Amino acid sequence: MKGSDVVIEHVRKSFGDFKALDDVSVGIRKGEFFSLLGPSGCGKTTLLRIIAGFESPEGGAVLLDGRDVSPLPPDARHVNTVFQNYALFPHLSVFENVAFSLRLKKAPESEIKAKVAEYLQLVELQAHAHKKPSQLSGGQKQRVAIARALINEPSVLLLDEPLSALDAKLRQHMLIELDSIHDKIGITFIYVTHDQQEALSVSDRIAVMNAGEVLQIGTPQEIYESPATDFVAKFIGETNLYEADVASVSGETVDLSVDGFGTVKVTATEPPPVGSRVSWTIRPEKVRIGLEEPKSARNGINAIAGVVDEPIYSGFQSKFYVRTPSGLVLKVIKQHADWSDDGPEIAWKDSVWLSFSAEDAYIVEVKR
Amino acid sequence: MSRPATRRRSSFSRSVFVGTIVFLSLPLFVLVLYSFNASKSGSWTGFSLRWYVKLFTDSPQLWRAFGNSAIVALSSALVATVIGTLGAVAVNWYKFRLRAYLRTITFLPMILPEIIIGVSLLIFFSGIGMRLSLFTVFVAHVSFNLPFVFLLVLARLEEFDFSIIEAARDLGASERQTLLKVILPLSMPGIVSGFLTAVTLSLEDFVITFFVTGPGATTLPLYVYSAIRFGVSPVINALSVVMILGTVLLTWSTRNFLKYIAAK
């Protein structure tokens, strides 16, 4: 693996009374595609700007391959940035934009020509070398920005919401392209985004941030399947999140008594003591919905009756809001499979049965 | 907004248009006409180029005044452009206390009546014991030209996303390289129009110059004013025509230059 590892140690930063980063520590491995994910104002961009050198932290350190770079100005760090609004130089052609850092280093003309051609090839923009940024589309500008940042052969590439200015289809396409560029170049990518879908699909690991703190660091699977806090559970994907009391514990299976609802079996690797107040979650796509009561109500399967409050059809899948007699509403997502097992259509006001395995339901936080 | 093409222009708007054009250009037309008048008096006595001949061959005082004006205009515009540009870059680039205050106070000379600036400069120069001369005229012109350059360059800089400065730094440019390779090329149209505005303002200034000029430092507007006090000389008419031509030529070439920069 090329690239550098980046270690953020106890970094603090505030703007006036606003605490942008509150004792943040993150370890990013060599060559990793690492995402900083969180809502706007969570501090992710500030952290990126501290790594780039545009902001200086009030405390803590930023280590690149073990060396503290926090006192260095941006031009002395072996790190380059792809900016949110591209930040291309409007007075220079595509070629000169990409060549900018080589010209600063006074590289020989032949080397500049060869390397710019190589990196324009990487982002498939050879045909546009002579154009001005104003003549390019949004996606092309983004690619120029990427080539310009990579030509310096940085050990870390910082990407600040690079796709947010593109439309949805193009964003999907650029995301795949970014991923393949990462595979080809093999340096460390640090990717800032508020879009959980983007982060889940390309990252090796994700740090979920909120209000200046890192809430959880893990692979996309870990973040999605076992969120560490209520915030992470709600922020990543769609979820059902409820509070309940622990009624009984047997091994890793926990019986929860959900307020005004009854008992639900869930899994916990470290079960909290009986009587604790907890939050628990079940992902909507892990809940099965049907018109008939599930026949084989095995041990560890929760079966719940309810009425469809609102069916939302969206082509390949449907979402149902199902109200149980106690008033609790569960979100359920049903994938439309092939002809063989799509089952009868479920409509508004239908009485339905929901079932889910205790293994798919998790305790997230222990409240007390 | 589109209008039906068939709709007739109202005769009112047409007469306002024609009236405005006549009102604006009739004096100029009379001026041009009389510069070719054979006689010195107000009545037309025939076509002649004698005032042009006199202007170019036999008006040493006028040309000395023109020379003074040219020296002051070019040097004060140059100095004002350098200071104004650097000031605009600093205000745009760095965040410091009193930044907003500095921006506002720089505009002050633009708003204040010229007579106040003239008087205050005169008091200032005599206060520090500086003898009035072409140099004091130069200093005065720099001070009233500065805000225009500052404003024009700042307006240009504010059109750009600030992150291009960070991008330059990120790509390895030092502060100086960022200034030379990104900021100055980008603000060039603002700098050029600032310089030309400064030259124009300096060339035509009468009131402030009147207060701060000293013996032997007569500028062209001051000379024209003193010449006209003894009756309108047709040489001044001829000079005016030459200057109108010069202005048209300068405006035209500036526009082309700015277009050329924008296209580059």
Question: Could you explain how this protein is built, in words?
Answer:
The complex is a heterodimer of chains A (368) and B (264). Chain A has 368 residues and is α+β, with helices and mostly antiparallel strands. Chain A folds into two domains: 6-234, Rossmann fold (3-Layer(aba) Sandwich); 238-366, Nucleic acid-binding proteins (OB fold (Dihydrolipoamide Acetyltransferase, E2P)), CATH 2.40.50. Chain A contains eight helices and 20 strands. Chain A has helices spanning 44-52, 94-104, 109-122, 138-150, 168-185, 196-202, 220-225, 230-235, and strands at residues 6-15, 18-28, 33-37, 59-64, 67-68, 79-82, 156-160, 188-193, 205-210, 213-218, 240-250, 253-258, 262-267, 277-282, 288-290, 301-313, 317-323, 329-335, 351-357, 362-366. In chain A, helix 2 packs across helix 3 and helix 2 (94-104) runs parallel beside helix 4 (138-150). Chain B has a domain at 67-217: MetI-like fold, CATH 1.10.3720.10. Helix content of chain B is 77%, strand content 0%. Chain B is globular and about 75 Å long. The model of chain B has no long low-confidence stretch (mean pLDDT 87). The chains are: A alpha+beta (368), B mainly alpha (264). The interface between A and B is medium-sized, with 24 and 19 residues.
H/E series of chain B: HHHHHHHHHHH
Q: Spans of chain A with pLDDT under 50 lasting ≥5 residues?
A: none
Which strands sit side by side, in order, in the main sheet of chain A? 6-7-8-3-9-10
Strands of chain B, count? 0
Number of helices of chain A: 8
Q: How many beta strands in the DSSP annotation of chain A?
A: 20
Summarize this structure briefly.
The complex is a heterodimer of chains A (368) and B (264). Chain A folds into 2 domains: 6-234, 3-Layer(aba) Sandwich (Rossmann fold); 238-366, Beta Barrel (OB fold (Dihydrolipoamide Acetyltransferase, E2P)), CATH 2.40.50. Chain A has 8 helices and 20 strands.
